[in-house]
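Readers of this paper often ask what the protein records in our data store actually look like. An entry from our holdings is shown next, in its original layout:
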Amino acid sequence: MTQDLARIRAFVQVFDSGGFSAAARQHGRSKALLSKYVTDLEDYLGVRLMNRTTRKLSLTEAGEAYYREASQLLQQLDDLDASILDQAAAPRGLLRISAPRNFGETILGPAIFAFLADHPEVTLDLRLEDRFVDLVEEGIDLALRISALQDSSLIARRIASMRHMVAMAPALVASHGIPKRPEDLRNLPCIVDTNLQGQANWRFVEAGQTISVHVSGPVRVNSPLSAHDAAVAGLGLALVPGYLASRAIRAGTLVPVLEDFLPQGAMLQAVYPHRRHLAGKVRALIDHLVIWFEKNPF
């Protein structure tokens, strides 16, 4: 009959603690009980797992193999217990979230604050900044990113589709005309947003091929909102997120161009560190954001 978990756990605890006395103190059990459990396990397996002396405890070859597999198994069971308990409990505690500044100020805020209203025991540290954030180093639970995931140590979940648009002011259309192909941008004033991947090298799809067009113009900014405002002012064409451009397009202060050449598939992603057990408050927020943006597309 398979040994019960108490004996397996005793074996792992004794080795992790460096001895029977230390394990007894650390885990609140008697030294005699731990010794009995380990002996029972060895008798069942028919091999010695530990070499015991008055000064030193070490694992035999069989003990090393058993410890390696048993410790992983116990960790998986502990993680499973914690996950089920966490899912059953209401979200609570501090959430540290990172997001791009303009997106956070224009789109994300209402979604996050609605989550807090539904979960009063959750507190928030929302950091809006346009820089790469090391989630592990800075203790961030969740980042909202509008880009492809590049760090393999992180996990990403799609929240919503995103799109970028090239737009220009009606006055600029009147003076320079509407570009017909991406290459036409080389001869037109453009607003360069240094926060964009590629910065002054804008990507398009033409005849099924991805191409890059180098642009230049009178203004360089490090903010999509400033690029948008410069375009509205007629200073050049801007490549900006659709959630910023759409309102100005509806108002007639910007004109979309080159729509058939823009890449598809961009998305808003929830990114978090690779952990065996994802905190319930983080999982609850991600689920909330998916539902929120299905009902409130941008």
